[in-house]
Protein: Amidohydrolase-related domain-containing protein
Organism: candidate division MSBL1 archaeon SCGC-AAA259A05
Amino acid sequence: KIHDGLHKFSEGEAVRVAEGCKELEVPLFAHLEDFSILDSILESLDLLVILAHLGTGVYQLRPAKVSKAVERAKTHKNLRLDTSGTTYPLARKAAEEVGPEKLIFGSDAPHEHPGVALSMIEYLDLTLQEREMVCHKNLENLLQK
């Protein structure tokens, strides 16, 4: 996981980490304050990126950043959004706008209890099959590629 809020790195350093993920054929998990880093990775590499917290911070929820992340997920085939550390209204917005195919369940434990995070997914307007996609099938499919 790269986290530009905790670990200071340049855009070039982030791209090099992403290149390493591509070589290893694993997704890049990213918590990014600076979306220009995300854009650079998505535009330069054919790499799956999982953006933590729907693109916002656990303790600084910013709906405008979630909107930006959702817009990027709509246009980039390789971007997925992690549901950890967010609120029900933001998760509902993401589910409605990008669909369950682009969401990956996360809890951000130990900061958030996994049961609480799971209950948020259960309250989304999703079928059982769609909840299964979000909770495990999407990630299973991505890791099997």
Summary: The first helix runs from residue 11 to 24. The CA atoms of residues 24 and 101 lie 24 Å apart.
